[in-house]
Specification:
GO biological process, one term: glutamine biosynthetic process
Strand content: 15-25%
Order of helices and strands: EEHEEEEHEHEEEHEEHHHEEEHHHHHH
Helix content: 25-40%
Structural class: alpha+beta
InterPro entries: Gln_synt_N_sf (IPR036651), Gln_synth/guanido_kin_cat_dom (IPR014746), Gln_synth_cat_dom (IPR008146)
Number of domains: 2
Number of helices: 13
Family: Belongs to the glutamine synthetase family.
Keywords: Ligase
Pfam families: Gln-synt_C
Radius of gyration: 22 Å
Distance between the termini: 32 Å
CATH class of the largest domain: Alpha Beta
Largest sheet: 9 strands, mixed
Number of strands: 15
Shape: globular
C-alpha cells in the first residue's frame, strides 16, 4: 500500500462494543504484524465497559490478533495513521482442537465477535444459498466539551442546524472523511433530540456493512473532537424527555448465485417484489401480506419469534431499555408492520427490505447481526409462520384489543432479555456455549453494576464510553 501513514491502528471490537487498539509503526506492520499478527490476552473479551475488571475468563493464555488486509484504510482526518480490523486466532499448538462455536474454521478463537458473524454468513450461504445485504443509520449526539450541553436544540430535519458554522463544518468533515475511506454515504440530517444527527451509510454485503459501521463510528467521534471540539456519543438515551439514539439496520436477502459479490449491490433480491398495505387496521385480518417470498416470510418470523431474547444482544445495556418505550418509534411491542415506525420490524413500502429497530450503539454489531441471522435461519428451517402485520401504534389499542391480537410487550429491562437469551435454544446453538456464556457473564455483571448507580452516574458513564 502506497501511503504516507507512519502508524497502523489494529482494531478489535470487543464483547461490549469498545474498540480495542494496538498501534504499530508502519515498518513493523509491513514486515511482521500483517503476516504474524499480535499477541493478545483472551481476557480482553471478558471486560465490561465501565472499567478494567475481568468479568469472564482467566489471566492465563494468549490469542493472535491477525489483521484483515481487506479492511485497511487511511484515516483522512489523521493521514499519518491507517486503520485495520483484526480477527482473533487460537495459538498454533491448539489448531487441531475443534471449537463448538465455529465448525467453519478450527483456527478461530471462539469468543471473536467478527468470526461469529462470518460463521453466520457462511451458514446462511451453505444451507440456503442466500446472503444478506445491509445498510445502517448511525445516529449520534454532539455535546459541547463539558459532555453535557447539546450543540443545538433544533428539531427533526431542521435547516437551522446548518446556520451553526461549527456544527455544519463538523458534519461536512465527518461525511467527507467517511467517503474518503471508501464508504458510501447516502444522506445525513438533523434528528429529533437536541444535538442529534444521523449519517446513513450505503447498502452492501453484510460483513462489509458492519466493518463500515465500525469505521464510521470511529470517524464520527474523532472528527467531532478534532474539527468542532465536540464530544460525540452513541449512548442510547442521553436526554430522559427526548428521543433516544439508535443504530437501525436495513436488511434484505439475496440469492448468492446471482449476487455480484462486490459488496455494492447487484444480483437478485430474494426478499420480495411488493407488499400490500392494508387500508385500515381491521383490514389486516383479511389482507395477505403480498408477494414476499416464502423464505423471507419465514426469516422474518424467526426474527420476530426470537426477538425478546435477541434484544439482549442488540439492546444490551440498562440505558438501551430506557430508549425502547411505547410511542417513541423504537419498537416496544412484538409486532411487524409495513411502514409502521412503532414496529420493531418495519417493512419498506415496496417490500424490498425490512428495518430492525431495537439496535443501538452499545451493541457489538457483529454479535447483534449474527444473532439476527441465526434467528432468521431458524425460522426458515422450521417453516415458521409470520403473523399478520400491525398498521397502528399498538400502544393506542386497549389491553383487550392487544390481547385479542396477541400483541405482546417486549422486555422492559435488560435483565429480563438476558434471562430469555440464556434459555434460548436457537441462539445458543448458533453462538455456541462458550460465546453465549461469556456474553451473558459480562453483560449480566455490567447490568448489576449499573443498577447500583443513580441515573446521572449512568448517563455520565455511558456518554463517556459510547
Amino acid at each position: 500500500m502506497d501511503t504516507d501513514a507512519r502508524f497502523v491502528r489494529v482494531v478489535l471490537t470487543d464483547t461490549v462494543n469498545v474498540n480495542r487498539v494496538r498501534v504499530v509503526p508502519m515498518l513493523r506492520f509491513r514486515h511482521q504484524v500483517l503476516t504474524n499478527g499480535l499477541g493478545l490476552t483472551p481476557a480482553l473479551l471478558g471486560l465490561p465497559p465501565q472499567f478494567d475488571a475481568v468479568y469472564s475468563g482467566a489471566p492465563v493464555g494468549e490469542v493472535t490478533m491477525l489483521p484483515d488486509p481487506s479492511t485497511i484504510r487511511i484515516l483522512p482526518h489523521r493521514k499519518t495513521h491507517a486503520l485495520i480490523l483484526a480477527d482473533l486466532l487460537l495459538p498454533k499448538e491448539t489448531h487441531k482442537t475443534t471449537t463448538q462455536a465455529f465448525p467453519l474454521d478450527r483456527h478461530v478463537f471462539p469468543l471473536d465477535p467478527r468470526a461469529l458473524l462470518k460463521h453466520a454468513i457462511y451458514m446462511l450461504e451453505q444451507e440456503f444459498g442466500l446472503c444478506v445485504k445491509a445498510g445502517f443509520e448511525s445516529e449520534f449526539i454532539l455535546l459541547e466539551k463539558d459532555a453535557k450541553t447539546p450543540v443545538d436544540n433544533d428539531v427533526y430535519a431542521d435547516m437551522n442546524t446548518f446556520r451553526n458554522h461549527r456544527v455544519a463544518e463538523t458534519l461536512d468533515s465527518m461525511v467527507e472523511s467517511i467517503q474518503d475511506m471508501d464508504i458510501v454515504v447516502e444522506h445525513f440530517h438533523p434528528e429529533s433530540a437536541s444535538g442529534q444527527y444521523e449519517i446513513v451509510t450505503g447498502y452492501t454485503d453484510l460483513l462489509r456493512a458492519v466493518d463500515d459501521l465500525v469505521m464510521t463510528r470511529i470517524v464520527i467521534k474523532e472528527v467531532a473532537q478534532q474539527v468542532g471540539g465536540f464530544h460525540a456519543t452513541f449512548a442510547p438515551k442521553v436526554f430522559a424527555d427526548q428521543a433516544g439514539t439508535a443504530s437501525h439496520v436495513h436488511l434484505s436477502l439475496w440469492d448468492v448465485s446471482s449476487s455480484s459479490g462486490n459488496g455494492k449491490g447487484g444480483g437478485h433480491n430474494a426478499y420480495c417484489d411488493a407488499l400490500t398495505l392494508p387500508s385500515s387496521f381491521d383490514a389486516v385480518k383479511d389482507v395477505m401480506t403480498g408477494n414476499v417470498t416464502v423464505g423471507m416470510h419465514q426469516f422474518m418470523a424467526g426474527v420476530l419469534q426470537n426477538l425478546p431474547a435477541l434484544m439482549a444482544l442488540t439492546a444490551p445495556t440498562t440505558m438501551s431499555f430506557e430508549r425502547i418505550k411505547p410511542s417513541y418509534w423504537s419498537g416496544a411491542y412484538q409486532i411487524w408492520g409495513v411502514q409502521n415506525r412503532e414496529a420493531p420490524l418495519r417493512v419498506s413500502h415496496d417490500g424490498s427490505h425490512f428495518e430492525y429497530k431495537p439496535l443501538d450503539g452499545t451493541a457489538n454489531p457483529y454479535i447483534a447481526l449474527a444473532g439476527i441471522l441465526f434467528a432468521g435461519m431458524a425460522g426458515m428451517r422450521d417453516e415458521a409462520k409470520l403473523s399478520l402485520p400491525v398498521q397502528v401504534d399498538p400502544h393506542t389499542l386497549s389491553n383487550e384489543k392487544r390481547s385479542e391480537l396477541q400483541i405482546m410487550r417486549l422486555p422492559e429491562r435488560v435483565q429480563q432479555a438476558q434471562r430469555l437469551l440464556k434459555e434460548n435454544a436457537v441462539l445458543r446453538s448458533g453462538f455456541g456455549d462458550a460465546m453465549l456464556d461469556n456474553f451473558l457473564a459480562v453483560r449480566g455483571k455490567e447490568a448489576e453494576y449499573f443498577d447500583g448507580l443513580d441515573a446521572e452516574e449512568v448517563r455520565k458513564l455511558m456518554i463517556a464510553r459510547y
